[in-house]
Structure formats: structure tokens, C-alpha cells
Amino acid sequence: MPPTPDVKQKIIGVTTLLIIFTILGSLFVLERPQNSNLTAYETQAQKIFKDAKNQFEHIRNVTLPPDIKLIIYTKQQAIDRWGKDPSGLDTASLSRQENIYKSLFLMAETDSLNGAVAQWTTSWTAASVGNEIYVIYENFWPWNMPDAEATLIHELTHIWQSGLPASVSYDTDKAYNALIEGDASYMSAYYKTQYNHSPLLDNTNYSNSGLPPTNTPGSNLIHPSVSDALTDLNLFPYINGKTFVSALVDAGGWDKLNLCYTPTYTPNTTEQILHPTKYFASEPAALTSAPTVTDNSWTAIPTRHGYFSDTYGEYFIYIMLNHWLNNNQAQNAAAGWGGDNFTYYENGPDFLFVWNITWDSIQDAAKFNQALTDMLNAAQANSQGPNTWFTNGKYLTLTWNPNTASTLILCSTNQTVTLPSFFNSLSS
Question: Taking the model in full, what pTM does it have?
């Protein structure tokens, strides 16, 4: 998990909203468990941490900051610091994101995004905050080589990484995180391939030091109350990001990868992550606008990036469809994505979102139109006639003019605002 350049943050990947707890002030050291094995555990952890720093500098031919620290936390310490206090959560934004996910059938109506934080906090193995690396005592086993040292190299990569440009959308966030986590995941995997051949390592020194046999704790990246679709969204930076980074290194070595951290060369759409050839071709997202409401009692809600519209991107569309459709249809329907504009409104207890998607061609728009219709049928949304559905108190309409390469999705708790007359322009 990466640090941020300006503010110490711990990112808890429970939702695709990326719930952020801001860490302010100095480190508060809590009492650690005292037992006969703790001294040996800390000694071994610090030993492989020192070697991990040497390994990272050797592989990337760089110098790490000299003040990096390794800190051991228990699960309870992690909960006390990051998992208990809800004051750092933007509950209003979380509620809006939940409305969107449920309206698009990405999660069940009975599920909640608010409440899985403590469970996730105890499931990660290591995290970096500023120049500090934290490992969870119950989850991180320093004798499990080379995996344990590979975990530390993953976090050292985050400490080394330079800051990226300010994100402007959901899709950009995913692309940036794919570079960040993909790089770290690739580095840890690359280290493991070198482990038995590295002159820097004396592998005979990594024995259990006489401690009794113990099952190696693992890291669970899936919270049981979060749908598979949201889990896939959360894992995108790690899995697809690693594939993207691998393509970069294959194309131009470490220098090609390092270039991504300069503003001109930073990937900024999930389309570029999914299709590296589009990254190499510098293919941007198409500028896309959306119709505005005629009733000024509705208020446009800014995104967490400070804009009044968002972009969700190709990967989000793929996951939305793949949650209900087979992989081939979902991939084929999402692959023609060119750009999108997502705007969210509120009026008292009611909400409305307008999602205009630009496709590469009319044929691509037709594929998505059919796939979304198939998805809604598979989700057993209640049809109200052609291209209109009403389920769980929400009305959804899909508009597509077969002569255009764009599709428009309208969804609201108020039926009247999903009608064309409610908008200044409904060109699609």
C-alpha cells in the first residue's frame, strides 16, 4: 500500500471509493505483546528488512532514504490506529457511492460499504506510511523466505516512488494506483525470481532460529461482506497494474518504467493499463459532456477531486457487466470505451445520476447497449417497457440513438427526472 507525497495516509481498500484515513502527528507507540518469541521475531524482521533495502537499491540502482524504519504492529494496534475511529470517513460520499453501486447492480441492496474497515485493517500484511513500514505481527512471518522479504521490497518501492500528478477522476485514480501497486508487485515478484541466485543473500541465515513450527499467517484481500465485483475493482491496481508494469519493463527496462513517474508519461486511464499499446500510443480519453437538469432545485454534487463530474472508465464498465455476464461479452462490450461523464445530483432525499459514455464507434455503442440490457435482465431488474427499469425504489433508463457512438444512462429515485423533458439536452 503506497504513501502519499504530502500527507501521511493509510489507504484501506474496502471500497473502490478508496476510504482514506489521514494520519496526523507523531507515531503513537502502543504496548506490544510480550512473549518469549517476540525478541527473535523482531530480530529476524529487522535482519531481512536491512537486506531488503540492499536488494532494492541493487535491483533499481537507486539510493533509498536513510531514515526508513520497520515497525511491528499487532492486529489490535492496527485496529486502534486505523480501524476504529469513523471520524476520518466521509460518510456522505460513501453513501452516494453506495447508491451508485446498488443502482448499477454491483452490490446487493442489503450490503453496506460502511462497516468493513476493521476487518480489512486486520487483513493486510504490511503498509507504508511516510518513511515507516508497518507489518502486522499475526500476518507477517519473517522466516517465510523469500515471501517475507519480497513483502518488504513491495513497501520499499512505495517509499521510493515519487508523487504523481493530482488525480482528476475515479478512472485516473485507478490508473495511478495501477502504476503504483503494479510497480511494487512487480518488484517483489522480480526479487523472488532472483532470490536463489543473489550474491547479496546468505540464505542459510534465514532459519527459524529454534522457534517451534508455526503456520505461516497469510493476507486476506477479500472481505466477506463486499461483493466479488467490488473486490475485483479493489484488486485491479495489484493484478492488472503488475501486468502493465511487466509490459513496460519488457519494452524498455527499468528506465521505461521510471519514466511513468514523470507527468507527461503517467498513465491516466484504466484503458491504458488494460491495453499497454494504447498507453504507448498516448491515447487519451475522449472529452465527454452530459445533459444538465432543467430544475434548479437539483444540486450537482462535486466529486472528491473537486469536480462536478467524474469518469469511471473501461475497467469499471467491464466489472459492472462481468458481475452478471460472461467474461467474453463483458470484455467485448467494455473494450470500445472512449470516454465518459458521470454527474450526480441530489434534491432532498432523492438522488439522480447521469452517465454519458462515448464509444470508439457506433458498433461499440451497440455492443454496450445490448450488454447492459442483458445485464439488467440477468440481474432481474423489473422492466417498465423498452429501455426502462424500476428496481428497489430506483428508476433506470438507457438511451441510445443508433446513429451515434454514445449511450446515456439515467438513474434516480424520482421517476420524472429520468424523462428526456427534464434535461436541457439529451443528445446521445
Answer: 0.83
